Amino acid sequence: MLAALSAAPDQTAMVGESSFFVDPNDDDLLESRNSVFWEAMLDNIRRDRFGRVPKRVLDIGCHRGGLLARIAELWGGDALFGIEPIPAARARAQLRLASCAKTVQILSPEQWKLVPDRSLDLVVCHEVLFTIEDLRGLVGNIARVLASGGRAYVVAGCHAENPVWSMWRDAFEREGRQVYTHRPLELMGFAGEFGLNPAVRPLRETGWATYDPADNVFAFPSVGALLDHQFRHKLLFRLAQK
Ligand SMILES: C[S@@+](CC[C@H](N)C(=O)[O-])C[C@H]1O[C@@H](n2cnc3c(N)ncnc32)[C@H](O)[C@@H]1O
């Protein structure tokens, strides 16, 4: 059911040198599949009385840099950072974003320390938590790099409270892929521990749920499950630096 992924150690989910999915076509389709969710996240950020234009931005799990490119298009960019374990995706993102901001640094998860302390207006992260074992470490890094008044917006649909996740998780595991099941309240608890103000809402509440049952990456057993996933369980967290 799920496109399998190749292996890697430590807290980084198992990823290949050049693709997240075993079938690289799925990597090619990732941006068009996810753009509706990226736009929903960006709409929420726009409507959220964010008191500054976010010019210094980090995307955690930035893949080939599509979301950072869209953010630079919307708000301009002084500094764009990405964290991404796949070397080929990092290289593509670095090239694609080169002319989008004065500083562009696409880093591996081992290079988090190169993102300066208290430097960023905005951190975004879309559907990456299930690939990361050390959620507390991730939230600690977010708290460290956010400037005063900065915010992180984290989208997660693959989590312990979403009934379809156990099905997708089992399929990942059958394919030898290490994934992690985090509880939404765990994320919010870590945020509080690191001095951030945690908040949560559904990412989208209305609209069309586009879905082709031939899509074998994240399959749904019913339309009800699809709608519950898209409009109820796919969560947007806001972690605000005081
Ligand atoms: C499901 S994809 C989502 C990609 C992108 N955020 C999007 O919305 O299209 C998960 C991404 O997280 C990356 N990833 C895996 N482990 C990671 C880690 N430890 N830190 C940051 N990113 C990671 C993967 O390589 C992949 O690009």
TrEMBL record:
Keywords (A to Z) from UniProt: Methyltransferase, Transferase
Record carries keyword Transferase: yes
A Pfam family it matches: Methyltransf_23
GO molecular function: methyltransferase activity
Alphabetized InterPro entries for the sequence: SAM-dependent_MTases_sf
Gene Ontology biological-process annotations: methylation
Name of the protein this chain belongs to: Class I SAM-dependent methyltransferase
